[in-house]
Specification:
With about 120 residues, this protein is mainly alpha-helical. Helices cover about 60% and strands about 10% of the residues.
Length: about 120
């Protein structure tokens, strides 16, 4: 019961839903998410911590860079996907996020010097 409450609480924020939405497309470094979401690094990191504590995302450190990915194969993955894909995709912000993440995937990866130690 605690895990379900933690997940539903984590899903109750637009920024966190936007993060999940772009992570459906690709695993991303924090600095890439900052560029894609057009939000401050501190805001993105704070929301990633909440998603990590709810076991929705996991991180991998690579030197100073931290890469995040969705944790898969959980009983409520379909709920998360349905929520994000049906509701949040209708917002212009999410449509813009997807355009930016797809452009990022097509380019060489890199944070353009925007990465900070997390």
């Amino acid at each position: 019961m605690k895990e379900i409450l933690s997940v539903t609480s984590a899903l109750s924020d637009e920024i966190r839903l936007r993060i999940i939405n772009i992570l459906f497309e690709s695993d991303l470094y924090v600095c890439e998410m900052v560029d894609i979401l057009e939000l401050p690094q501190s805001t993105v990191s704070r929301h990633l911590t909440i998603l990590k504590n709810a076991n929705i995302v996991e991180d991998t450190k690579n030197g100073l860079w931290v890469k995040y990915a969705l944790i898969e194969n959980r009983m409520y993955d379909n709920i998360i996907k349905a929520l994000v894909k049906e509701e949040i995709l209708n917002t212009q912000k999410c449509k813009d996020d997807l355009v930016r993440v797809k452009a990022r995937i097509e380019k060489d990866r890199g944070c353009k010097g925007n990465c900070k130690e997390v």
